């Protein structure tokens, strides 16, 4: 009930449109505090919240989602299927990059070809590898060819940022990362490492312009500091709040809590190639040892919701009725006793401060209480991302993670985490591979749903990975900020308004 009331209040207090009045009266600099700085501002190089919430305001995407979650035009104004495997996009005319050069169909085709190039090694490759090629077929048309019917194409292209070919080919990868040039509603101004990324409004933007002349994204790892900044008026919008911080903000009377249950899922990854997790009995014991309900209610304050599958209810591919091993610590102890001494083999639980360490420590304690030997290893987000996509033999033994594809389709989560071709995956299960491959080439939505049911059931049976909960996104905002958090976690600055004078 508390979450429902907060959601209703957030909807009433927020708006998705920036009015001309807000444009005239908004403060000079909107200050946004995140938990960590971006690991990259090149939109094809990395995919984590602290990166994409910055760079997606510098770049336009081929498509986008509106505030209702529907796929909507952005750089592409329309699209037509020429066949089951070829789709023609009409490219918006009159769009310019921040250096004044026109955005062309060639830039669109180049951007797609760049991200699907295996040698470029984008961590997003698994979400775009069904695209065979992209060709500019006219001044304002691009034809994308897929390897087969690909029902997820439009959903995935809502994340495809358009980069300027003439800039990318003229500079090094690192040079583009530290001085990105896009066509979005905000221009890159400066990146002071460890302190802030500063953006300036693009007053020549073709679409809805931002209300704020400048925006400062700051790295503030400590949650209490983010709240204190908001309460003192030095910050306008803060992310990554937990329930305790949200309650603190509510009680203070300055600022407001803006929550939404999103498509992001929290999970406990188990590398089946490393002992003792190569024994399915140990993995089953771990599943029985983790109290998801206790984590959600006792630690997270009921903002989140327990999950039995690796797909959120707001995404296509969520299947009703999937049953995962129930919380039963006594059964976990019995299983581990059957395994014997091998179950005491020490393994690491890999994490990063970006994630809620109360949850990580609770999982460690739950596993320790049933007789497992688990130690926590912590690193920064950039290194966490790098090691978690290093291949099945070197991915840490276990890890707490949170995943959002931004596409609201199971393909964007299940394929990178489970398909044997993905650098994130640590299993090789032919049945899962076959189901995932079929699901991304089957147009019929009912058939796709049954294929995802198969995947969810195998994961639950083999305990390859343990779904934990549907994560809630909780922002804190100044009273004058007008903002509605989205389930896909996108922070579009030109959808943020200001009601103050």
Automatic annotation (TrEMBL):
SUPFAM superfamilies for the chain: Periplasmic binding protein-like II
Keywords associated with the record: Signal
InterPro entries (alphabetical): Peptide/Ni-bd (IPR030678), SBP_5 (IPR039424), SBP_5_dom (IPR000914)
Domain Solute-binding protein family, first and last residues per copy: 70-422
Organism domain of life: Bacteria
Span of the signal peptide: 1-24
The keyword RNA-binding appears for this protein: no
Descriptive protein name: ABC transporter substrate-binding protein
Species, as recorded: Aureimonas populi
Record lineage: Bacteria, Pseudomonadati, Pseudomonadota, Alphaproteobacteria, Hyphomicrobiales
């Amino acid at each position: 009930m508390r979450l429902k009331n907060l959601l209703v209040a957030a909807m009433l207090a927020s708006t998705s449109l920036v009015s001309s009045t807000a444009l005239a009266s908004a403060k000079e600099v909107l200050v946004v505090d995140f938990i960590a700085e971006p690991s990259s501002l090149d939109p094809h190089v990395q995919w984590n919240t602290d990166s994409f919430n910055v760079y997606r305001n510098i770049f336009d995407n081929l498509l986008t989602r509106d505030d209702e979650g529907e796929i909507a035009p952005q750089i592409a104004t329309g699209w037509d299927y020429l066949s089951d495997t070829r789709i023609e996009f009409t490219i918006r005319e009159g769009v310019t990059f921040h250096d004044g050069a026109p955005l062309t169909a060639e830039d669109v085709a180049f951007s797609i070809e760049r991200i699907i190039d295996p040698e470029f090694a984008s961590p997003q490759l698994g979400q775009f590898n069904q695209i065979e090629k992209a060709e500019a077929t006219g001044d304002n048309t691009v034809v994308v060819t897929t390897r087969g019917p690909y029902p997820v194409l439009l959903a995935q292209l809502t994340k495809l940022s358009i980069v300027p070919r003439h800039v990318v080919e003229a500079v090094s990868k690192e040079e583009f990362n530290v001085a990105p040039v896009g066509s979005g509603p905000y221009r890159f101004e400066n990146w002071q490492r460890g302190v802030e990324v500063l953006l300036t409004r693009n007053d020549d933007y073709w679409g809805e312009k931002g209300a704020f002349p400048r925006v400062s994204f700051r790295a503030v790892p400590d949650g209490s500091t983010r709240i204190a900044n908001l309460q003192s008026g030095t910050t306008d919008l803060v992310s990554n709040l937990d329930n305790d911080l949200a309650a603190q903000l509510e009680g203070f009377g300055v600022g407001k809590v803006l929550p939404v249950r999103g498509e992001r899922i929290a999970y406990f990854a188990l590398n089946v190639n490393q002992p003792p997790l190569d024994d399915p009995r140990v993995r089953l014991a771990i599943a029985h040892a983790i109290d998801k309900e206790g984590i959600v209610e006792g630690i997270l304050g009921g903002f989140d919701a327990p999950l039995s599958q690796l797909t959120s209810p707001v995404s296509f591919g969520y299947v009703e009725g999937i049953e995962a091993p129930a919380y039963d610590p006594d059964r976990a102890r019995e299983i581990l006793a059957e395994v014997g001494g091998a179950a005491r083999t020490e393994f690491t639980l890999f994490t990063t401060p970006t994630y809620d360490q109360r949850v990580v420590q609770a999982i460690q304690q739950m596993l320790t209480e049933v007789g497992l030997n688990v130690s926590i290893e912590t690193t920064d987000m950039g290194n966490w991302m790098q090691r978690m996509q290093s291949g099945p033999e070197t991915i840490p033994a276990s890890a707490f993670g949170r995943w959002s594809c931004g596409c609201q389709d199971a393909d964007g989560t299940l394929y990178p985490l489970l398909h044997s071709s993905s650098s994130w995956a640590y299993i090789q299960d032919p049945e899962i591979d076959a189901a995932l491959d079929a699901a991304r080439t089957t147009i019929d939505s009912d058939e796709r749903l049954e294929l995802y049911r198969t995947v969810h059931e195998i994961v639950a049976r083999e305990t390859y990975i343990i779904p934990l909960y549907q994560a809630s996104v909780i922002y804190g905002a100044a009273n004058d900020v007008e903002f509605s958090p989205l389930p896909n976690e996108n922070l579009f600055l030109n959808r943020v308004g200001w009601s103050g004078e």
